[in-house]
Amino acid sequence: MKMVSVIECVWRQALHTFARSHTVQSFEDHFARLKALADSVSANDVKLDRCLLEWTSNSNSSNHVRKPPVTYIEIYEDHAVTIGIFVLRSGMRIPLHDHPQMHGILKVLTGTLKLQSYNILPAVEQDTLRRRTAMGRNAIFVEKLPEVYVSDSDPACVLTPDEGNLHEIHSVDGPAAFLDILAPPYDSSVSENEERSCHYFQERKLNEDRTLRNKNIVALFRISSPSDFWSDSAPYTGPMLR
């Protein structure tokens, strides 16, 4: 009997977790199992091509082709879940962005990442803070969490619709790559008239309000995709999913 690969175990558990109906407790149990499996994934388990970590690639000519700051490797995607790998080259970032009504698991495969995450405050607090700060309805008020540094020896990080749903990711002291599991995928439907799009944000501190500053409350405003962020794709070369 052929052994099941680590990434195939993750894939199967992701399908069990997100592609079926669960009670709240059942979902939490399945999600915890998925997170535990993701904790063990390494770069070798997905046969990560180390050449993707470098800024340039050799060609047949004497010229080097400069790569984008980020490369994405799709492992699997359906209506319920997407699994892939992000490769960040040295000194690069994925800008501050959201995950509308999504759950996610991020496991560093190689290198070190700096994560700056934010919790969206409840709607009733949003209205109160808009009146208090006079920032208008375009402001989204969030709790800014402490920066976290994670490497391939650390457990996976988790985001939910309520916790850590917005984040910015930087590579630290060299290139890095991470496994990314998201459910539901971007561009799926939130409701009949709303798509699950990825939005980018800029932070604005509330320095004039000491109480909010002491609580690490900041305002975010939606912006266009930053000009220093773009990406390409590469094929998945790891074990087959069966």
TrEMBL record:
CDD domains: cupin_ADO. The keyword Nucleotide-binding does not apply. Keywords: Iron, Metal-binding, Oxidoreductase. Transmembrane segments: none annotated. Pfam families: PCO_ADO. One of its GO terms (molecular function) is oxidoreductase activity, acting on single donors with incorporation of molecular oxygen, incorporation of two atoms of oxygen. InterPro entries: PCO/ADO, RmlC-like_jellyroll, RmlC_Cupin_sf. GO terms for cellular component: mitochondrion. This is 2-aminoethanethiol dioxygenase. It comes from Gryllus longicercus. The lineage of its organism: Eukaryota, Metazoa, Ecdysozoa, Arthropoda, Hexapoda.
